[in-house]
Design goal:
The complex is a heterodimer.
Chain A lengths: L2 H26 L3 H22 L5 H23 L5 H23 L7 H6 L9 E4 L2 E5 H19 L1 H9 L1 H6 L4 H42 L3 H26 L3 H19 L5 H27 L5 H4 L2 H8 L3 H13 L3 E4 L2 E4 L1 H12 L2
Antiparallel strand pairs in A: 1-2, 3-4
Helix pairs in contact in A: 1-6, 1-9, 1-10, 2-3, 2-4, 2-9, 3-4, 3-9, 6-9, 9-10, 9-11, 10-11, 12-15, 12-16, 14-15
Chain B lengths: L2 E12 L2 E12 L2 E6 L6 H8 L7 E6 L11 E4 L13 H7 L2 H4 L7 H13 L15 H13 L5 E5 L7 H16 L3 E5 L6 H4 L2 E6 L1 E7 H4 L2 H8 L12
Parallel strand pairs in B: 3-7, 3-8, 5-6, 6-7
Antiparallel strand pairs in B: 1-2, 1-4, 8-9
Helix pairs in contact in B: 2-5, 4-5
Classes of the chains: A mainly alpha, B alpha/beta.
């Protein structure tokens, strides 16, 4: 295992973490599509920054991208406020226009440099180790590691410092404003961070994977917990897992690292969607099944209670009559009776069914709580 | 009785259309006031403008003799229950703690002192047992109680509540009204957007009848008359339930 492998994995983990941090708040603010818009719209900012510095990893590029990102957010908001166009359409209009502008600029002026459309869309993690940070003739490691690491630390610092304010602004921005906090400032700071993360990450993973990493892990984490701090933590863990497993999948399949990472993000979501503790499909299915039996048992005990000590009880309370009276299929009726018997809610006397005291209790309770 | 809320010549416009036209409003301390009017009358807009959430086109607003931002921590606000996402990943106690964020200011986090205060507020709305519940599991009435506790924990002088009885069961409605009356009796000022005309007389001291303009305001016994209601609701039968928005 060469140093390159470790460097690529390290960079992808740092990128994934940096994206998951602001991504959590984007998802909770129902602004996932904004990450799509920003990650594309930063392109003209990057291109202009590149013209000025002729260096793809210059900090000026990050600033240029951040400005373009904030411009996107402001433009979208401005168009939406005119009430002529809805927000989703406004997002679509602004980012595609800005992105197209960036593509045109590359095609017209930057054809001969390492800034081509493929790299913009998908990035190339495999090349990350070739672009190294040299200081006084010493090799300090891949430049991308520093760019994404610094932005990641910035995100982490911002969220740690303003956790309480971000939480309030996200949950209830009206209360946030009335209590004297500045939801607008928080909003634009967060969008600035999203933009900077997108620029820093885009060189490594491209603008499409940025979206996957910002939206995917937080959306998966949301399925696992009902606590914001845990949601952030799980997002980071899931992002790192996707980065590592994506890297190894790419290694084994000899495929694009970025593509495999994005796929793993999707796989994580699909798995959690099925098996998540409270909201997963599996749990929901089990719950429904359990409820079906529980409800049927209640129906049975209520039925027995209604006919207890009545002249017709002899026919009503027979297992083979439940079919007619409760419209149950024979196997289902037998299943319900077996479950009620094992829970000692009823007992069978020959062919008849009789309520036990606890069964009578359940029937009374069930009827009160309708 | 000193004047706590003072609104003069308040006009709020949405583009060129006035949503509130030349509103005057005075509310004293120890008053429980209902704001009543049909849908689109500007009830929520009035509250939001007083709280600085909407910029007025004209007029002055004073709370406790000061502009709103100077007294923000002395003002409690209960927004409409539907204005937030109840699937947000947080607990009941956390939501109540948010009421204390204003007093904490930037960056400082709530500690055990604040948690104690929040639990005491939950006690008042009979929701202590739910303090660690996820808010997504609450019923409508419970959500409203949590919102109320979040305002109570602020220990404010003035409270604005937007339809706190919307969609709650009868038990919760009585519990909330009892609480509001206790607040009023201890000298607080409570302004409530209310939509059930049947209960105005029994619940509130004063009423502000609004339909873009101020129709009338003052003690319920004087102001809450059939004629004023006809003026407010545009001639429709007085005691009918306003359709829920």
């Amino acid at each position: 295992m060469s140093a390159f492998h470790w460097e690529i994995q390290l960079v992808s983990m740092v990128v994934a973490t940096a994206c998951a941090l602001p991504g959590t708040f984007l998802v909770l603010r129902k602004m996932a599509m904004m990450s799509d818009a920003i990650s594309h719209a930063i392109l003209p900012g990057i291109v202009i920054g590149f013209f000025l510095t002729e260096n793809l990893s210059s900090p000026l590029l990050i600033l240029g991208g951040a400005v373009a990102g904030l411009l996107t957010v402001a433009l979208v908001e401005w168009i939406r406020k005119t009430d002529r166009v809805r927000e989703d359409a406004a997002i679509g209009l602004v980012f595609s226009t800005l992105f197209a502008l960036g593509v045109l600029m590359i095609a017209q002026f930057a054809n001969d440099v390492h800034l081509d459309i493929d790299a913009v869309l998908l990035g190339e993690l495999a090349f990350v180790p070739f672009d190294r940070l040299m200081l006084f003739g010493r090799d300090l490691g891949p430049q991308a590691l520093y760019a994404t690491g610094i932005v990641g630390l910035l995100c982490a610092g911002f969220i740690l410092l303003f956790y309480k304010e971000l939480k309030l602004a996200t949950f209830d921005s009206a209360l946030c404003a009335t209590l004297g906090f500045l939801p607008g400032v928080l909003h634009y700071s967060l969008m600035g961070l999203v933009s900077m993360t997108a620029v820093a990450a885009f060189d490594a993973v491209g603008s499409i994977l940025v979206i996957a990493l910002m939206v995917g892990p937080p959306a998966s984490a949301y399925l696992m917990t009902h606590q914001l701090s845990k949601m952030i933590l799980y997002s980071i863990i899931l992002a790192i897992l996707a980065a590592i497993s994506g890297y190894w999948a790419a290694y084994l399949l000899d495929a694009s690292i970025a593509g495999c990472m994005a796929t793993m993000v999707g796989v994580e979501f699909a798995v959690l969607f099925c098996v998540a503790p409270h909201q997963g499909l599996l749990v929901a299915w089990k719950r429904r099944r359990h409820q079906r039996w529980a409800f049927a048992i209640k129906m049975l005990v209520i039925h027995l209670l209604q006919h207890e000590d009545t002249p017709e009880s002899e026919q009503e309370c027979r297992v083979d009559h439940l079919q007619d009276h409760l419209a149950w299929e024979q196997p289902f009726a037998e299943g319900v009776v077996a479950r009620a018997l094992s829970r000692k809610l009823i007992r069978s006397v020959g062919e008849y069914l009789e309520l036990t005291p606890s069964g009578r209790n359940l029937a009374h309770q069930a009827m009160v709580h309708v | 009785m000193s004047t706590v809320i003072e609104v003069r010549d308040l006009t709020v416009a949405y583009r060129e259309n006035p949503v509130l036209w030349d509103i005057d409003l005075d509310v004293g301390s120890g008053t429980l006031m209902a704001i009543v009017g049909p849908n689109g009358a500007g009830k929520t807009t009035l509250i939001k403008t007083i709280l600085g959430l909407i910029k007025p086109a004209a007029g002055q607003i004073r709370i406790l003799g000061q502009p709103y931002h100077k007294v923000a921590t002395s003002v409690g606000y209960v927004p409409q229950r539907g204005s937030v996402d109840w699937d947000f990943p947080t607990s009941v106690l956390d939501v109540v703690l948010m009421g204390l964020y204003g007093r904490l200011g930037w960056i400082r986090r709530p500690g055990s002192m604040q948690r104690k205060e929040a639990l005491a507020a939950l006690e008042k709305v009979d929701m202590v047992d739910y303090s660690h519940q996820q808010i997504s599991q609450l019923s409508g009435g419970q959500q409203q109680r949590v919102f109320l506790a979040r305002a109570l924990v602020q220990k404010a002088q003035v409270y604005f509540m937007d339809e706190p009885l919307q969609g709650v069961d009868a038990t919760t409605e009585h519990a909330i009204i009892d609480l509001l009356q206790v607040l009023r009796s201890s000298g607080k000022t409570v302004v409530v957007v209310h939509h059930d005309l049947q209960t105005v007389s029994s619940y509130f001291d004063e009423v502000f009848l609004l339909n873009i303009r101020r129709i009338s305001s003052g003690p319920v016994s004087e102001v809450f008359t059939d004629q004023n209601l006809k003026l407010t609701y545009g001639g429709r039968v007085a005691i009918i339930k306003e359709p829920t928005s």
